[in-house]
């Protein structure tokens, strides 16, 4: 989505984590400063991955997914914060955004066919103590996009601590977080048209069926999906986690329902949709 010509004057640092490539584009400051900042960011990414990835044995999320009935697990602070974000997102999206659909997501990604796994089990996240209790086994955590967005928001704190005021942070090609007021132009591209948007101290997330359609799972099952969902949704928001939450949830609605659905959501700045090859402004 980013414009290569605009990025030419920024120092670029990349690091693989959370099954994607994180990129830091830093404008201003000398090479030593930028390199030290990037190293601290990548150390933080390694820590976050070790806590949030369901695929790493011993991570908080992996241990959650192996809890038995009645067991309580004490969590790292980052994992607890991310789970609370997911719980809040579940309430605000009317259940469309659900971090406990791990078994269904894995079933979709595997392409194995067969019946969709039933949703069973119950997990209780303790609001005031970094802990989670398995009331009944069956639910599995998959943080997916919210984990990557949460990571970008954590890296932004490091940039602020270092006094870096002009940067673009990305997780793969679908989650971007602009820091500062310099502005970072991006292209929202449809099949027959595109729209340029300048990111200024805000986040942008994209969800769609073109590249990772297998990750979009409706909590109500495949029959609950709208008849003609749009091909892609972009959301700009104050934080990368918020942008990830809403770009995923809004893919599960008919585009015509979106304005009313998000009417009270002040965290969302803009929503764009790709339909019939064109990029439209939804709000």
**Tally of alpha and pi helices:** 8
For the record, give the distance between the C-alpha atoms at the N and C termini, rounded to a whole number: 20 Å
Major sheet summary line: 8 strands, antiparallel
- State the secondary-structure class: alpha+beta
For the biggest β-sheet, the strand order reads: 1-2-6-7-10-11-12-13
Q: Residue-averaged pLDDT, rounded?
A: 89
Q: Please give the share of residues in helix.
A: 25-40%
Oligomer: single chain
Shape summary: globular
Q: How much β-strand is present in the residues?
A: 25-35%
Low-confidence stretches: none
Number of strands: 13
- Spell out the helices and strands N to C: HEEHHEHHEEHEEEEEEHHEE
Radius of gyration over C-alpha positions, nearest whole angstrom: 19 Å
Task: Describe this structure in a few short sentences.
The protein is α+β, with helices and mostly antiparallel strands and 283 residues long. The protein has helices spanning 4-7, 31-52, 60-64, 77-92, 102-110, 144-162, 240-250, 258-261, and strands at residues 11-17, 20-26, 72-74, 122-125, 131-136, 167-171, 175-179, 184-189, 194-199, 203-208, 232-237, 268-275, 278-281.
Fold blueprint:
Blueprint: H1 4-7, E1 11-17, E2 20-26, H2 31-52, H3 60-64, E3 72-74, H4 77-92, H5 102-110, E4 122-125, E5 131-136, H6 144-162, E6 167-171, E7 175-179, E8 184-189, E9 194-199, E10 203-208, E11 232-237, H7 240-250, H8 258-261, E12 268-275, E13 278-281
Antiparallel strand pairs: 1-2, 2-6, 3-5, 4-5, 6-7, 7-10, 8-9, 10-11, 11-12, 12-13
